[in-house]
Amino acid sequence: MKLITKWLFAPGAPCRLGWARLIFFTALFVMQIRIDGAAWADVPTVFWRPIQLFTRHFDPAWLSRAWLEPLRIAMLAALICAAIGFRTKLATGVGAVLLLFFAGLPQNFGKVNHDDAILTFVAFAFFASHCGRVLSVDAWLARRRGDVSMQLSPEEAGWPLRLIHILWALVFFAAGFAKLTRSGLEWAFSDNMRTMLLQHHFHHLPPTSLGLLLADARSLAPWVGAASIFLELSAPLALLGRSWSLVIVGGLFSMQLAIFLTMGVLFEPFFAIYLMWLPYGRAKLT
Amino acid sequence: MSSARRKALCLLFAAFCLTPVFMMLQHRERWPFSDYHMYSNIAEPQFEYCLVIGETTDGAIVDLTFGKHWPPFEPIRLTVTLRRFHLSEGEDAADRQKLVPAMGYLRDLYVRQRDERTWTGPALRRLGLCHGRVDLAAPGLVVDRLAPCRPIADAWVDVVAANL
């Protein structure tokens, strides 16, 4: 246990956390501004099929543009404030709660997607951290006031990104684990991969015909499937260090890109998480 | 870092990391937690799907599923839901009644976008849903989304009526 906590709270570069906050919340802002979350107010209740989070605490009759629109604007304002580090604690907290709401709301309309759930966890991780103490308007204002209590210790700078990396690794490991436990190696070493590739040309819109080419290469498709499961199960190894993460994070990024090109399934929210692996701000731990 | 804060953060780590592990081991999902089982079952070569279609003013049938025609729905969320309405039976048979109001909503959405000149597709006479059944093992398979898709008779909604 001591070893685990030592690893979790190992020192990190403060400016890396600042950059991560800036990039993550900017990416979130860009993603969310393109989505009219308030438009769910216009969708008739015949589509309403609540997930548990909303069953208990929410009545679809409350859905109206009159309050969804201001909430959406509040979320966008919170995300941009969180990005620049202005009133960071408040901004990350409000941003995380409203993101949970706006990411959860569509899940009540017919189909539950899980790819954006990780973004809410990451937003809450930033909220729990002291990420506003570096590369932020808050830090600049504190320096002008001569307030030295705003400095970020390396111990506080390391754990948030470590938590984000663990969450990312768990998602992929769970996906690989589910394939192996539900279908076994047959998932890869059968016609499954070929079937999936072809199916997606009927009910999705892949941007290329690479999936059809791969489906035609009957001897290659199983190995692509096996490599996918192997990479997914290897995701936790990315936590071991820079060279491991380079190979595994790079491999899984390529896999998700290939899924988009061959099957038309875009894991857009994950691209914001990949940015959390970049080695920006590898400064001295001072 | 104070010892109290360290303990609180350990609880945060436990809540965020152990809950997904529990979900994974129990094969359960409760948004935002999941066991990420999507695509984990073996795909069957026989499958069904639905597409949103439209009949243009010159009588052609066009696929309107993809693109950004039906905001805030993404294409797959919409077609999966409409397919469930169409195929519902047994305990969920009442969901079949939802298909017509759901298509009426799409018709209203089309009319609004057309009137606001934000509609990017062709001008439509009516909107509908088609249902495709495909057997990938069948000889002479042609990968064409629209070809095996048959319009569902009671899912057509007239756009002309909405013009009045």
One letter per element, helices H and strands E, the order of chain A comes to HHHHHHHHHHHHH
- Structural Rg of chain B: 22 Å
Largest interface: A-B, 67 and 57 residues
Terminal CA distance of chain A: 27 Å
Major sheet details of chain B: 5 strands, antiparallel
What are the main properties of this structure?
heterodimer; A: 286 residues; mainly alpha; 64% helix; globular; B: 164 residues; alpha+beta; 5-stranded antiparallel sheet; 4 helices; 35% helix
Fold and architecture overview:
The complex is a heterodimer of chains A (286) and B (164). By secondary structure, chain A is mainly alpha-helical. Chain A has 13 helices and no strands. Chain A is globular and about 65 Å long. The model of chain A has no long low-confidence stretch (mean pLDDT 92). Chain B has 164 residues and is an alpha+beta fold. The longest helix of chain B has 24 residues, at 3-26. Chain B is extended. Classes of the chains: A mainly alpha (286), B alpha+beta (164).
Short description:
Chain A is an all-alpha fold and 286 residues long.
